[in-house]
Amino acid sequence: MAAKIISGKEIAQQIREELKQEVAEMKEKHGVTPGLVTILVGENPASVSYVTAKQRTAHELGFHSVQDNQPEDITEEALLKLIEQYNEDDSIHGILVQLPLPRHIDENKVLNAINPDKDVDGFHPVNVGRMVIGERCFLPCTPHGILEMLIRTGVETSGAETVVVGRSNIVGKPIANLMLQKREGGNSTVTICHTGTKDLSFHTKRADILIVAAGRPKVITADMVKEGVVVIDVGVNRIGKTPEGKAILCGDVDFDAVKEKAAAITPVPGGVGPMTITMLMKNTVQAAKQFAGLI
Ligand code: GUN
Is pLDDT above 80 for 162? Predict the structure, then answer.
């Protein structure tokens, strides 16, 4: 049986409508406009396209949004100073520094310089710690988006065997942690696979829910999954260009083959990607509400 296609695009659109309403109400009732700055260092084409999409969405939702482009050769000191300025700026509730940063800049130092109350990426150690112990925090956007997709699609996560492929700080580690927590969209039995895993398909075949963030195109093939699995494909791999110069994307999962066995699967593009940006917006609204004492 062919799988249900989980459209991140549609779910994201639904959440954006909810947020738009919320932002309009915040403005009208409390005079608060969520403010988001996205800082881009250099001109990495993928980063430019992500940041442009984030800014476009922020505008659409009625945010005060600032795009701050800095040259590739900005010093670490200057970047830290810039972050400090935004930490002090009351019109800005969320600060996002697009990663990766150039090699001469210490990424951890930069992320740690962001005020945790404005860390809408959820990468600051304070937010990571709060997430792990289940306190209120900013959840990292991609895992947050995956949870929302599972919940809104009605996937039963409680008691499910969830297998995560990938152990990055941005996706693998946090989604594994969230899926094991006793909360909506969680309470799974979680296995994390990575490049050191001896027999990857032994684990992936056991999965009721398979979340793949390996960063390699089509590493998950049909023979590696069981019938009825729910597949969340986080991969965005650029595998070529159309004659018009547009990037051709594929996920970490062999979509065409795996969809014949899965109960549900996310496409690439149009799956996890739109959810990530939307959860950044949700986090920024949360930051603005916290700042204004509305929650
Ligand atoms: N680069 C790739 N993904 C992300 C993300 O979620 N946030 C930031 N800041 N940079 C990224």
Answer: yes
Task: Render pLDDT for 177-208 as a digit per residue (tens, 0 to 9).
Answer: 999 999 999 999 999 999 999 999 999 999 99
C-alpha of residue 248 to centroid of ligand 1, in Å: 20
Ligand 1 atom with the shortest distance to the CA of 140: 6
- Tell me if residue 202 falls in helix, strand or coil: helix
The third-level CATH classification (topology) of the domain covering 31-116 is Rossmann fold (3.40.50)
Residue range(s) occupied by CATH 3.40.50.10860 in the chain? 31-116
121 within ligand 1 shell (Cβ under 6 A): yes
Which residue out of 119, 121, 233, 252 is catalytically annotated?
121
CB distance 157 to ligand 1 below 6 Å: no
Residue from 99, 119, 146, 237 whose mutation best tests the ligand 1 pocket (most atoms within 8 A of CB):
99
Name the residue among 217, 222, 206, 219 with its Cα closest to residue 261.
222
Q: Which two tokens stand for residue 186?
A: 């969680």
pLDDT for the residue numbered 2: 85
- Domain covering 141-273 assigned CATH 2.60.40.10 in the classification: no
pLDDT of residue 152: 98
Is pLDDT above 80 for 48? yes
In the chain, CATH 3.40.50.720 covers 141-273
